[in-house]
């Protein structure tokens, strides 16, 4: 087998910034079988649950340390009225989910259930408010309901519904995709709405809010320029959230080698988005107070056969795992600006961590990428340089190659590497600048078949495998298998 010689230089003394754990965040929308069946089965279900929330899913999610979960949408958010989802379940209205198949939402899963789910898995809740069909009053009341510690009618209502203690929800999105399903606003008009809404979203005692504005579709510079131009320092804003779906090439499970490269290459466009969007933001926010967020991203494959197309269910292969890993590496490399990322979506929808079928549950290759990348959370991102022969493909001779990121925590270097080449391992010489390796371990996601995935008959077809590492001194070698994701953990001397 031909191998590709590569060199990786890690600058242990050059920090980019602390990797915000929220970069490893998730997104759960009332869409298809994400909330209902995926998370919520109800207390009377035969599927083992705690207060209606399925136990197997909670246990699986805890392993990947989800720092934050965004809810209730997505497009759903701008047609969601939070009061429909509180109080005795038998009294909650049956509403129509106009965006996702016009199915009936029983509202059994509302604010209390979402917060309980977050607490069970150890994540911070991130609530996306309704700008499109809602009002500033409705959203300010939601914040008061969740966060006010005193004796207001809203706080009493929360207590009557079982939670006297405030929820202290920090992250609040002011609408979702307001350039599209969230109201079809122009950027200037949305900026006016943003100013108006944010004026009324209060910091209550012990519960300051972190307000997130709707950013562009993909890397649209126009939205960002016009939004910030119109905002011009008025309106409280802590985060600005873009969405980027890299789409598909072929289908979720059927693709040629060319299509494997096409999709992975398209996902790497995230780097350009981050670089260009942060540059525009710097023009309006030179002190870099506002964080860049990508609160929806991932693959979006054509509907799977025999599945309801509006439920966005898709299978998840090694290719998705590489997309996830290289996107996380991009966020890590921009740890000084990117403060949150929320892959779409947690369960049974798009690039999911988990798939369920009634009482059965499996984890996906993307889940395993998140699992082996988790030690980056809270680490100090380090500058690294990679040099490898690029892969050239397609009519336009597109080029890309080995990518990765590095962080350090507690005298341990954590280095993650994606080798997208379908049949060439990368033999890398790893050089540490400013320190020495004492020992190392490695976990890799690797499979002989680039189409490999997990299903209910073969749930462990793609799982991380341990690899030998000979790490000592300032320079050592490691071979990254073809079509793989690797996480190296190096103890420094
Ligand atoms: O994640 C599915 C949908 O994609 C979300 O509801 C919307 O925000 C985006 O267009």
What would you give as the CATH superfamily of the largest domain? Glycosidases
The number of E-state strands comes to 25
Structural class: alpha/beta
Q: Summarize the main sheet.
A: 9 strands, mixed
Number of DSSP helical runs: 10
Taken together, the total number of domains comes to 2
Adjacency order of strands in the biggest sheet? 23-22-25-20-19-16-1-21-24
Beta percentage is: 25-35%
Bound molecules: alpha-L-arabinofuranose
**CATH architecture heading of the largest domain:** Alpha-Beta Barrel
Mean pLDDT: 97
Rg, please? 22 Å
**What overall geometry do the principal axes of the alpha carbons give?**
globular
Low-pLDDT regions:
none
- CATH topology call of the largest domain: TIM Barrel
Name the helicity range: 10-25%
Describe this structure in words.
Helices cover 24% and strands 30% of the residues. The protein is an alpha/beta fold and 493 residues long. It folds into two domains: 4-12 and 382-492, Golgi alpha-mannosidase II (Immunoglobulin-like, Sandwich); 20-377, TIM Barrel, CATH 3.20.20.80. A nine-stranded mixed β-sheet has the order 23-22-25-20-19-16-1-21-24, covered by helices on one side. Strand 12 (291-299), helix 9 (318-333) and strand 13 form a beta-alpha-beta unit. The structure holds alpha-L-arabinofuranose. The site of alpha-L-arabinofuranose has 10 residues, from loops.
Features:
493 residues; alpha/beta; Immunoglobulin-like; TIM Barrel; 9-stranded mixed beta sheet; 8-stranded parallel barrel; 10 helices; 25 strands; binds alpha-L-arabinofuranose
């Amino acid at each position: 087998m031909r191998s590709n010689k590569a060199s990786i230089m890690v600058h242990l003394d050059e920090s980019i910034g602390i990797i915000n754990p929220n970069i490893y965040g998730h997104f759960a929308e009332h869409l298809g079988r994400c909330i209902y069946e995926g998370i919520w089965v109800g207390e009377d279900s035969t599927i083992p649950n705690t207060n209606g929330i399925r136990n197997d899913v909670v246990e699986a999610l805890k392993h990947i340390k989800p720092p934050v979960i965004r809810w209730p949408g997505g497009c759903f958010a701008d047609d969601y009225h939070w009061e429909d989802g509180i109080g005795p379940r038998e009294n909650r209205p049956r509403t129509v989910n106009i965006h996702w198949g016009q199915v009936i939402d029983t509202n059994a899963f509302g604010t209390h259930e979402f917060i309980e789910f977050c607490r069970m898995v150890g994540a911070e809740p991130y609530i996306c408010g309704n700008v499109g069909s809602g009002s500033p009053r409705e959203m300010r009341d939601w914040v008061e309901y969740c966060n006010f510690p005193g004796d207001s009618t809203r706080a009493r209502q929360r207590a009557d519904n079982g939670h006297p203690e405030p929820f202290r929800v920090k992250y609040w999105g002011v609408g979702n995709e307001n350039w599209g399903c969230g109201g079809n606003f122009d950027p200037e008009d949305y900026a006016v709405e943003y100013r108006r809404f944010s004026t009324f979203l209060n910091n209550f005692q012990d519960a300051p809010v972190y307000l997130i504005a709707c950013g562009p579709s993909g890397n649209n510079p126009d939205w960002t320029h016009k939004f910030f131009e119109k905002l011009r320092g008025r309106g409280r804003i802590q985060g600005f959230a873009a969405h980027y779906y890299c789409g598909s090439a072929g289908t979720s499970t059927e693709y040629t080698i060319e299509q494997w490269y096409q999709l992975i290459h398209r996902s790497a466009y995230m780097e350009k988005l981050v670089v260009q969007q942060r540059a525009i933001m710097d023009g309006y926010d030179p002190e870099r107070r506002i964080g860049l967020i990508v609160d929806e991203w991932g693959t979006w494959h054509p509907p799977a056969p025999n599945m309801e197309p509006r439920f966005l269910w898709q299978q998840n292969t090694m290719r998705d795992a590489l997309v996830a890993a290289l996107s996380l590496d991009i966020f890590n490399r921009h740890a000084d600006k990117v403060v949150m990322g929320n892959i779409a979506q947690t369960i049974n929808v798009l690039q999911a961590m988990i798939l369920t079928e009634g009482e059965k549950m499996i984890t996906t290759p993307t889940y395993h990428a998140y699992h082996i990348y988790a030690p980056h959370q809270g680490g100090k991102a380090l500058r690294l340089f990679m040099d490898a022969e690029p892969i050239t493909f397609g009519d336009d001779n597109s080029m890309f190659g080995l990518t990765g990121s590095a962080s350090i925590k507690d005298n341990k270097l954590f280095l993650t590497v994606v080798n997208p080449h379908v049949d060439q391992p990368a033999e890398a010489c790893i050089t540490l600048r400013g320190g020495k390796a004492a020992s190392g371990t490695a976990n890799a996601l690797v499979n002989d078949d680039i189409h490999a995935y997990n299903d209910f008959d073969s749930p462990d077809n793609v799982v991380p495998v341990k690899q030998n590492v000979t790490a000592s001194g300032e320079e050592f070698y490691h071979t990254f298998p073809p079509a793989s994701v690797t996480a190296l953990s190096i103890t420094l001397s």
